[in-house]
Amino acid sequence: MSLRIVVTVKYVPDATGDRHFADDLTVDRDDVDGLLSELDEYAVEQALQISENSGDDVEITVLTVGPEDAKDALRKALSMGADKAIHVEDDDIHGTDAIGTSLVLAKAIEKAGYDLVISGMASTDGTMGVVPALLAERLGVPQVTLLSEVSVEDGTVKGRRDGDAASENLEASLPAVVSVTDQSGEARYPSFKGIMAAKKKPVESWDLSDLDIDAEEVGLEGAWTTVDGAAERPARTAGTIVKDEGEGGKQLAEFLAGQKFI
Amino acid sequence: MAEVLVYVDHVDGAVRKPTLELLTLARRIGEPVAVALGNGAGDTAAALAEHGAVKVLTHEAAEYADYLVVPKVDALQAAVEAVSPAAVLVPSSAEGKEIAARLALRLGSGIITDAVDLEAGDEGPVATQSVFAASFTTKSRVSKGTPVITVKPNSAAVEAAPAAGSVEALDVSFSAQATGTKVTGRTPRESTGRPELTEAAIVVSGGRGVNGAENFAIIEALADSLGAAVGASRAAVDAGWYPHTNQVGQTGKSVSPQLYIANGISGAIQHRAGMQTSKTIVAVNKDAEAPIFDLVDYGVVGDLFDVVPALTEEIKTRKG
């Protein structure tokens, strides 16, 4: 038996940078450094752990859709221990929404071949958290999402999903789409050996024609939602700051009473 | 007037507050028709009618509890086909967003998630979203198909608006995918008696400065004096001091209460992403340079172990 895992990852603008919009109301990627979305590191980690705990032959492919720089996200995942990478890059993809992104990812996943897809719970830029569910819908396979624990055995994926009202134990047959939360287990740091090995690992580049996708289906033109405006949130007016010299608690209570919270 | 479908989030017939808020927003764009699924679905009708639902479509089946997400998508799709609504509104919970996404794809419709406000527009509903850790506000609309929009808790006031609320059984046939992911066990979360974090009017949070699980008792005591929910920063959760379900921030819950009190939290961008839209922000921190003080309406530079108990005492005294 062999197990083919495809891990979807995203190259995102660094959240600690000064993020803003370009003129076409897409995210301006030029002014802020990019990196592998932190939440996707957990997906790579779980793929590696499934591989390490499996008696089977496991192949881990990392897949991203994004501009040239997005290769950095793939290199990071390869240096953590993934086996190979696929980069879908095409000028027509600029401005694609979540629905369109799920189309490109689904076509690439089908072309690559898979038994299990693993994604992070959300990207750290858009933070919608809908792509794993969209992939399951498009691929027609079970979604086993938002897992804080995941395991694969004998063609079955099991996991625990911690919701607001309850913790649920889930189970589905492969092939399936899994997403994992930041509670699934700390992601490993790439070792020096891993970083060196990553340089030799294969990175395939595909464009829309490789995936039989028309340009009209993606990009800003193909998006099913439209952003009409973006405005910077007005700076908060400077608040009152006091130093506690024994009365800080009382002063704060006074403020809360003035605001009718008490 | 166009009908607007509202997906009902309920626990055994008890409707959760974000759904009632959606009914307020739905009335701005049409006539609310609620869709309640699963055990106790019929029991939701009175509360929904009181808040403006002209009709309540219900369907009870074991599939909703026994399998993940897809049975609910099948049912909402059946409701859309029956009603042809002007929009579908879903509460922005983790599950709500997954349901909405799959529904939108099936309908060939665009989706907007995590709206914080909603208005009628010339070309369909216009949603306001708060992005980049709430540093920008965007206005968006769905440009293809039936708009599917998820809305964050606390985005609108709950308003009484009595309506007919007539109950009709929804006809649902489940898809082949519906039984793909089995729920093999369920452990209900123990109730703390405190309000739900995302729905609370006041949230009191603790971070690294709380310095130990046992010290969260003073954060809880302050929360209880105000009838508030308790939140925690990622640092406090990663240290094992408080459960992940209470985490406020980018990878936890995003909250938008009337009052947010951050104790021993420095205010890293990841935390700010989850609380920056709070109406009034208060912080207690030893470090006068902590970035959280850039956000506050009122800040106390001081030791939370002195300030927080004193505040709790003062609140109790004032409340008598």
Automatic annotation (TrEMBL), chain B:
<dbReference type="InterPro" id="IPR014730">
    <property type="entry name" value="ETF_a/b_N"/>
</dbReference>
<dbReference type="InterPro" id="IPR014731">
    <property type="entry name" value="ETF_asu_C"/>
</dbReference>
<dbReference type="InterPro" id="IPR001308">
    <property type="entry name" value="ETF_a/FixB"/>
</dbReference>
<dbReference type="InterPro" id="IPR033947">
    <property type="entry name" value="ETF_alpha_N"/>
</dbReference>
<dbReference type="GO" id="GO:0050660">
    <property type="term" value="F:flavin adenine dinucleotide binding"/>
</dbReference>
<protein>
    <submittedName>
        <fullName>Electron transfer flavoprotein subunit alpha</fullName>
    </submittedName>
</protein>
<keyword id="KW-0249">Electron transport</keyword>
<dbReference type="InterPro" id="IPR029035">
    <property type="entry name" value="DHS-like_NAD/FAD-binding_dom"/>
</dbReference>
<feature type="binding site">
    <location>
        <begin position="247"/>
        <end position="251"/>
    </location>
    <ligand>
        <name>FAD</name>
    </ligand>
</feature>
<keyword id="KW-0285">Flavoprotein</keyword>
<feature type="binding site">
    <location>
        <begin position="233"/>
        <end position="234"/>
    </location>
    <ligand>
        <name>FAD</name>
    </ligand>
</feature>
<dbReference type="GO" id="GO:0009055">
    <property type="term" value="F:electron transfer activity"/>
</dbReference>
<dbReference type="GO" id="GO:0033539">
    <property type="term" value="P:fatty acid beta-oxidation using acyl-CoA dehydrogenase"/>
</dbReference>
<dbReference type="Pfam" id="PF00766">
    <property type="entry name" value="ETF_alpha"/>
</dbReference>
<feature type="binding site">
    <location>
        <begin position="264"/>
        <end position="271"/>
    </location>
    <ligand>
        <name>FAD</name>
    </ligand>
</feature>
<feature type="binding site">
    <location>
        <position position="208"/>
    </location>
    <ligand>
        <name>FAD</name>
    </ligand>
</feature>
<feature type="domain" description="Electron transfer flavoprotein alpha/beta-subunit N-terminal">
    <location>
        <begin position="4"/>
        <end position="183"/>
    </location>
</feature>
<keyword id="KW-0813">Transport</keyword>
<comment type="similarity">
    <text>Belongs to the ETF alpha-subunit/FixB family.</text>
</comment>
<comment type="subunit">
    <text>Heterodimer of an alpha and a beta subunit.</text>
</comment>
<keyword id="KW-0274">FAD</keyword>
<comment type="function">
    <text>The electron transfer flavoprotein serves as a specific electron acceptor for other dehydrogenases. It transfers the electrons to the main respiratory chain via ETF-ubiquinone oxidoreductase (ETF dehydrogenase).</text>
</comment>
<dbReference type="InterPro" id="IPR014729">
    <property type="entry name" value="Rossmann-like_a/b/a_fold"/>
</dbReference>
<feature type="binding site">
    <location>
        <position position="285"/>
    </location>
    <ligand>
        <name>FAD</name>
    </ligand>
</feature>
<dbReference type="InterPro" id="IPR018206">
    <property type="entry name" value="ETF_asu_C_CS"/>
</dbReference>
<dbReference type="Pfam" id="PF01012">
    <property type="entry name" value="ETF"/>
</dbReference>
